[in-house]
Amino acid sequence: MKVVILNTFERTGGAAIAANRLMKALIKNGIEAKTLVLYKQTGDQNVISIQSSSIKKQLARLYFLWERWIIFVHNRFSRKNLFSVSIANTGFDVSMHPLVKEADIIHIHWINQGFLSLSDLKKLAASGKPIVWTMHDMWPYTGICHHARECDHFTRECGQCFFLQSKRDKDMSHKIFLQKKQHIFSNNNLTFIACSTWLANKTKISGLSTNHTVISIPNPIDVSLFNVLDKAISREKLGLPKDKKILLFGAVNVTDTRKGFDYLLEALKKIDTTMLCLAIFGQAKKEFTSLVKIPVYSIGYLNSHEKIVTVYNAVDLFITPSLEENLPNTIMEAMACGTPCVGFNTGGIPEMIDHKLNGYVASYKSTEDLANGINWVLKEADYPVLSDNARKKAESTYNETIVAKQYIDLYMRLYQNESEIFNHHGYI
């Protein structure tokens, strides 16, 4: 069986990491899987970029800028929320690409920022091939937003989009919603995969998802690669203190308000930090980290598996005070390394962290409870048991072999159904 995975980036972002891990897991389990991307970032021969010429590279840049410009105009020339929405008005037609034509299954992941337009998605849907769409945020079933927050307009037909500061029923979000409904969701060969039960439940109440199958399958992780290592040796490699309790926080951009760093700062004011220090990965500027009143160690970007695993093993606790999340790869990675996690009760986080079994789930936006969680893990809980439970959760739920099998079973059912339809109509 041949599967083609579609994702904008090869390595940048959580969706790209998850899609890449799935491709490798499928290959290990006997599936001929390739990934088609807009931006190729490694030498992996199983990943192919559609930017095969300088013209296409220029087009990719133009498409990206044109989409953002349209959003900028509709947002009254404000940069606020510029990347909180996507309209998929530009992209590349990949329906005739050799990988797509040869594939038995088309597997879509995250395709925004100039990779595929709504028109391009329509052409893929019209191919008649089974299409699996793994959703890494809410965009596939909303009008334009990636995270709807408290808004429920996607359950109808969108409109009055707060991201656009709009009061109009028939604004751009409403227009894109109807285009999705007419051109994409009218096809019955789409199967939607939510990485969390939370996202699956949200999808099912969307005005777009009627008559479509929605399944929950988590992202995969290689538990042989993300494993438990000696903490003292890991700290020595990174130059971290051996006599402190180390908290870990990180994101591609830690200043992103959605990542909740302000809540962590407030929580740290509510606990005894005498023996604590904070390690941060991602973009953490000095003027930002200077706000933290405990020693801060900036690790920078985690650009290798070895460094990522070493970091998780070097710390005592991973904190994710994010306000919007689906199924964070970071929690999965930390747990696989035996590191307990603390996070808010939002999105798919409470599905990953089992409260007081392998970490602590704090009340949403409560800095008091976030502080309670940090204290509980470090001072009250049986830490070795927590650590062991975290590792077991990763092994039993997110193990790449288990996840790959779920996808392969789905692929086989869809492929067999397609074959039966063709036989019924006398095509073969």
Question: Which descriptors would you attach to this protein?
Answer:
Rossmann fold, seven-stranded parallel sheet, 13 strands, disordered C terminus, 2 domains, 428 residues
Structure, described:
39% of the residues lie in helices and 17% in strands. It is α/β, with parallel strands linked by helices. The protein folds into two domains: 2-220 and 400-424, Glycogen Phosphorylase B (Rossmann fold), CATH 3.40.50; 231-398, Glycogen Phosphorylase B (Rossmann fold). The strands form two sheets. Strands 3-2-1-4-5-6-7 form a seven-stranded parallel sheet. The protein has a six-stranded parallel sheet with strand order 10-9-8-11-12-13, sandwiched between helices. Residues 421-428 have low confidence and may be disordered.
Topology summary:
Elements: E1 2-9, H1 14-28, E2 32-39, E3 47-49, H2 54-74, H3 98-102, E4 105-108, H4 118-125, E5 131-135, H5 172-183, E6 190-194, H6 197-204, E7 213-216, H7 231-238, E8 245-253, H8 261-268, E9 276-283, H9 286-289, E10 296-300, H10 305-314, E11 317-320, H11 329-336, E12 341-344, H12 349-352, E13 359-362, H13 367-380, H14 383-398, H15 400-424
Parallel strand pairs: 1-2, 1-4, 2-3, 4-5, 5-6, 6-7, 8-9, 8-11, 9-10, 11-12, 12-13
Helix pairs in contact: 1-15, 7-10, 8-13, 11-14
